[in-house]
Structures are given as C-alpha cells and as structure tokens.
From TrEMBL:
Gene: rpoE_23
Top-level division of the source organism's lineage: Bacteria
Protein name: RNA polymerase sigma factor
PANTHER family referenced in this protein's UniProt entry, alphabetically: RNA POLYMERASE ECF-TYPE SIGMA FACTO, RNA POLYMERASE SIGMA FACTOR
InterPro entries per record: RNA_pol_sigma-70-like, RNA_pol_sigma-70_dom, RNA_pol_sigma70_r2, RNA_pol_sigma70_r4_t2, RNA_pol_sigma_r2, RNA_pol_sigma_r3/r4-like, WH-like_DNA-bd_sf
Length: 182
C-alpha cells in the first residue's frame, strides 16, 4: 500500500517513528502518549465522515484499540495502514450501533462558499450506511484504490467497487432529491 502521512505528523520521520513505536511496544508510557498524540488527528479525520455525530466516540474507541494492541504491530513502517484499518472498523462499528434520527433538512440551498453547505453534505452523508460512508472516505478522502480500501475494510476489491457505486448513487439521489424539494 502507498503510505500517506497526515500533514504535520511528528512521526513522518522513519527513524523517529520506529523509535517511538518500539518504545511504546516495550511499555514506555511517554512514548505511547507521544504515539497517540501523533495519530489522533489522523484517526479523527477518518472517523468523522463515517461515524458523523458519533465521531468522537469512534475515534476514542479506535485509540483505545491502538493502545491495547500496539504490541501486535510487527513493522513500525506499517503504523498508519494499521491505524487506518482500526479507525475505519471502529467508526463503522460505532455508526452501526447508533440509533439517532436523520437531522432535519436545511430550509434553503446554501451558496457554494456558505459554511451551511458542509452541514448539507453531512446531512446527506448521514443517510448512507456506515459501510458506504467508509468506502467513500477511503476512496474519495483518503485516496486509496479499490484494493487498498478492500484491505482496510476486509472485503474484496469487487465489493469495494460495488459499495462505492451504490454509495455514490445513493448520495447523488439524496442530494438531487433534496435540491428538487427546495
């Protein structure tokens, strides 16, 4: 998989990353804290569009899994791929467990530069299943190809393609349907 480092990440230097990961695996609490601090923005960015209103809970659950399982990471260079898998799976799990109602629709169409547009997009995303939100995030936000996204989600590339097709179609229909009622 192609490694994509989050902007401003203190662990982007391979030597530093290896040292911090190995120290955390050896039980160094300060190294573990540094590791969690470095990956938290990345985990939040992944969990946000998938778990929506429950993103903070999903990110917290993902960080707990990372903390508990850091010893199982074989190669420090694979840190972000390993974290990505955990974050996406936790976000989908938390989103599935959520039983909140669909937010009310916005009364008028916002301008392209209006911050309300982001809320409108979030409203349409909220109507997608967690699996569809996850595949959209991995492909359209994180830039993974079907094979990489499939590895993260634990499904074949063909399943990623079909979920992506359905997710985009559902998003488009909800988006356009919402526009026609305004």
């Amino acid at each position: 998989m192609t490694q994509r480092w989050p902007d401003g990440d203190t662990l982007s230097d391979p030597a530093t990353r290896d040292r911090v990961v190995r120290a955390a695996q050896a039980g160094d609490a300060i190294a573990l804290s540094d590791l969690l601090d470095a990956i938290t923005p990345y985990v939040r960015r992944l969990c946000g569009p998938i778990a929506l209103a429950d993103a903070a809970d999903a990110a917290q659950e993902a960080l707990i899994v990372v903390m508990r399982r850091i010893g199982s990471l074989r190669e420090p260079a694979a840190l972000y791929g390993w974290v990505r898998v955990i974050a996406v799976r936790e976000a989908v799990r938390v989103a599935r467990g959520s039983s909140r109602a669909v937010p009310a629709e916005l009364p008028e169409l916002p301008a392209p530069d209006d911050p309300a547009l982001a809320a409108d997009v979030a409203d349409v995303l909220d109507r997608l299943s967690p699996e569809h939100r996850a595949v959209l995030v991995l492909r359209d936000v994180d830039g993974l190809d079907e094979t990489e996204a499939g590895a993260v989600l634990g499904v074949p590339a063909g399943t990623v393609r079909s979920r992506l097709f359905r997710a985009r179609r559902t998003f488009r229909r909800a988006w356009l349907g919402e526009r026609s009622t305004r």
